[in-house]
Amino acid sequence: MSTLSLIFITLGVAVMGLMAYAATRPDEFRVERQARIEAPAEQVWPLVSELRAFNRWNPYERKDPLIKGAYSGAASGVGSRYDWDSREVGSGSLEITALQHGRRVQMKLDFIKPFEAHNQAEFALQPLADGATEVRWTMQGPANFVSKLMGVFIDMDRMVGRDFEAGLQNLRQLAEARP
């Protein structure tokens, strides 16, 4: 057997091993971050439950000042929708699907580019005894084979988690500055 054949066989076995390992990864992913905000929940609520206000602190909006966005559907609440297109952060849509006033906002998050993905996002507010609010931001969704394979090389929790942390810091600054 030639050296070139051995190289190809070794590469083939390595690729198959990588694919087999990726196939064993979880079928769903979840990213979650939380922050304490020194403001009452009723002050934080409008900043997470209204898409126009959300985009004032949304870290992805801040990544691309040239982002093209359009609001549609209800002005606020369930059915409120935001579509975006950006060279920096891709394109997709975000739609509010459920609200528990003052406590929870659930959203459908659909990405078109750079990869198609259909996820759920949620903001949960927990009023604290001292008047502050704990805000939890989560995103979860299915992990197809391609995302499992990418996950072998890219830590989704760390990558998206950093953006969530930056966004929660932006939210903190806005909420704590409001009278």
Keywords for this entry:
179 residues; alpha+beta; Alpha-D-Glucose-1,6-Bisphosphate, Chain A, domain 4; seven-stranded antiparallel sheet; 6 helices; 7 strands; 36% strand; elongated
What would you say this structure looks like, in words?
It comes from Roseateles puraquae. This is Polyketide cyclase. InterPro entries: Polyketide_cyclase/dehydratase (IPR019587), START-like_dom_sf (IPR023393). Pfam families: Polyketide_cyc2 (PF10604). The chain has 179 residues and is of the alpha+beta class. The chain has one domain: Alpha-D-Glucose-1,6-Bisphosphate, Chain A, domain 4 (2-Layer Sandwich), CATH 3.30.530.20. It has helices spanning 3-23, 41-49, 51-57, 59-63, 145-153, 156-177, and strands at 28-37, 68-73, 80-86, 90-100, 104-113, 117-127, 133-142. β4 (90-100) and β5 (104-113) form a beta hairpin. It is elongated, with a radius of gyration of 20 Å. The N and C termini lie far apart (77 Å). The mean pLDDT is 89.
Care to give the gist of this entry?
The protein has helices spanning 3-23, 41-49, 51-57, 59-63, 145-153, 156-177, and strands spanning 28-37, 68-73, 80-86, 90-100, 104-113, 117-127, 133-142.
Structural class: alpha+beta
Count of alpha/pi helices: 6
**Tally of DSSP β-strands:** 7
User: How does CATH name the architecture?
Assistant: 2-Layer Sandwich
Across the major sheet, the strand order is: 1-7-6-5-4-3-2
Protein name: Polyketide cyclase
Organism: Roseateles puraquae
